[in-house]
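Fill in residues.
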């Protein structure tokens, strides 16, 4: 039976320290680097202890250890631009060299693979890395481990970064004019066209094979795989999104804005944004544990942001098992899945007087359902 009138239930949630109670976005840290005036242009995160930076002014990539400040430089046969950490290797597009470099992060050995044109954009998938070669124009799927091209499609792809993504086996590409999106069948290479109606400059994968796109009018739009516009969200005035636009595993989109020194998340049609003081974010990337890393071009530093929304208590109730024993049930939804544990606080009032205040831990039993048992005398009188 449920104990209704005499037991008032309050559930308190204890989370990992990086989560704020009210805001989902929090700046975790800044790590300064000393590069004698040279500024990195792109970043890739191997782990929280190892970060890779492109340094075209020196024709190098630099392995940077944020916690110690140690740096190791690797020379390259071209100007490094976009960089990825992909399946145990560092992959770098080499501007003006018509090639990519593949670096072993343990031995620092460098291999190169040549193409018919310069590689401008890269997007990682489970099958390989999509590369854009707008000068040809062409899009190719490249395997760093096999050092070969797996697929190639002749497409009028836009010149820029953040213009290609894969979403549930569909390839979305911003067309050369920036006014339309191409949805490419990655088996046949055939494609369908969605006319945006205005220029769009960044894309990110959306759920069910759809795509998010940023328009120059200041909107974030979501297009489904059957080419229907199903969502349109106005970004804060003055927002110019720094490439790339980033999507999460829980159907939200994260953007960084250099002119406004801000980072924001769009989730369920709403925008949540924080300002980062004088920090000027550039070329953000996803890291481990719901973190997002970026180059701060004003501080010569690496910034780290975490995004994690507070959990939601859907239901909570108490069942009396005996005169001394009771059990608490709760359903708690946590979007990011980083909830550590749930505490139950059970209070009993008799004649408006608090006679019981018990706090104890609850156990996850299935999905998002928690239970916790306590053994304390419960007054049987009605309050």
């Amino acid at each position: 039976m449920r104990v209704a009138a005499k037991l008032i239930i309050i559930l308190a949630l204890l989370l990992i320290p990086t989560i704020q109670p009210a805001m989902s976005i929090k700046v975790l840290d800044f790590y300064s680097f000393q590069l004698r005036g040279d500024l990195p242009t792109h970043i890739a995160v191997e782990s929280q202890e190892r970060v890779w930076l492109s340094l075209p002014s020196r024709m190098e990539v630099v392995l940077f250890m944020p916690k110690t400040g140690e740096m190791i430089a690797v020379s390259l046969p071209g100007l490094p631009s976009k960089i990825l950490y992909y399946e145990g290797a560092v992959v770098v597009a080499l501007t003006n060299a018509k090639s990519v470099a593949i670096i072993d992060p343990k031995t620092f050995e460098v291999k190169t693979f040549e193409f018919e044109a310069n590689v401008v954009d890269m997007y990682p998938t489970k099958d390989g890395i999509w590369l854009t070669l707008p000068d040809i124009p062409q899009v190719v799927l490249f395997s760093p481990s096999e050092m070969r091209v797996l697929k190639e499609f002749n497409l009028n792809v836009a010149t820029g970064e953040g213009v290609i993504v894969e979403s549930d086996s569909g390839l979305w590409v911003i067309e050369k004019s920036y006014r339309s999106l191409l949805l490419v069948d990655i088996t046949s290479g055939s494609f369908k066209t969605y006319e945006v109606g205005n220029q769009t400059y960044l894309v990110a994968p959306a759920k069910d094979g759809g795509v998010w796109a940023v328009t120059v009018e200041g909107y974030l739009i979501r297009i489904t795989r059957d080419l229907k516009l199903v969502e349109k969200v106005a970004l804060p005035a003055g927002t110019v999104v720094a490439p790339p636009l980033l999507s999460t595993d829980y159907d939200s989109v994260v953007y960084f804005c250099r002119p406004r020194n801000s980072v924001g998340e769009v989730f369920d049609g709403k925008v949540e944004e924080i300002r980062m003081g004088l920090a000027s974010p550039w070329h953000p990337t996803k890291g481990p544990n719901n973190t997002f890393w970026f180059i701060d071009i004003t501080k010569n530093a690496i910034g780290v942001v975490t995004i994690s929304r507070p959990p939601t208590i859907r239901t909570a109730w108490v069942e009396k098992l005996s005169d001394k024993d009771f059990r608490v049930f709760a359903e708690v939804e946590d979007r990011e899945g980083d909830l550590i544990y749930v505490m139950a606080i059970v209070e009993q009032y008799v004649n408006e007087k608090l006679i019981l205040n018990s706090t104890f831990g609850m156990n996850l039993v299935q999905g998002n359902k928690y239970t916790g048992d306590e053994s304390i005398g419960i007054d049987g009188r009605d309050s």
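The radius of gyration is 25 Å.
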